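User: Can you recover a sequence for this backbone? Please restate the input before giving your answer.

Assistant: Of course. Working from this structure:
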């Protein structure tokens, strides 16, 4: 009886310690969607360079926000603001030199691990499509496709309200109704 109780205590303590040893694999973006860019952000990332429409971007290399995911400087995280409010996050791969960042499967594996698995067909290395996850108050889009001979790959995070505001702004820009620097 005493041995069984002792074994239960050891099991409980082991599980408790294991829980604290698991590394957090999710990137720590500078804020949640809808958050405001405040003085503490300005001190850490610099002032926002807003255009006349209030649009601004803060781009950070992924290793800074995702230290446990083995990303290199070819992985970038763009925080997109409108009137100092975070509208979207674009986590993308820079394949300007070659396609090796996408071919490493790091961003796809990150998406699957953090947002959920999805069907990539027979060989994930040739996946050319998108997948959408809907969460409470946000959506996440993983998009990967070949354009000419360069892979374009990204994770885009926003919500319906802010996504529509950005789409309207982009539509007005394309229609020449507003100008951008």
């Amino acid at each position: 009886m005493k041995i069984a109780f002792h074994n239960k205590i050891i099991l409980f303590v082991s599980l408790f310690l294991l829980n604290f040893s698991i590394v957090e694999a999710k990137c720590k973006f500078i804020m949640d969607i809808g958050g405001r860019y405040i003085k503490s952000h300005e001190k850490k990332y610099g002032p926002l360079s807003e255009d006349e429409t209030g649009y601004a971007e803060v781009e950070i290399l992924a290793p800074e926000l995702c230290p446990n995911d083995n990303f290199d400087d070819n992985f970038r995280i763009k925080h997109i603001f409108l009137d100092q409010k975070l509208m979207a996050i674009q986590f993308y791969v820079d394949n300007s030199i070659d396609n090796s960042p996408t071919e490493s499967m790091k961003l796809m594996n990150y998406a699957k691990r953090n947002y959920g698995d999805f069907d990539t067909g027979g060989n994930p290395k040739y996946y050319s499509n998108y997948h959408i996850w809907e969460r409470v108050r946000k959506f996440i889009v993983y998009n990967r496709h070949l354009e000419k001979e360069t892979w374009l790959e990204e994770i885009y995070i926003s919500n319906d309200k802010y996504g529509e505001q950005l789409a309207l702004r982009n539509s007005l820009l394309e229609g020449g109704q507003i100008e951008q620097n």
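That completes the design. Residues 3 and 9 are 10 Å apart (CA to CA).
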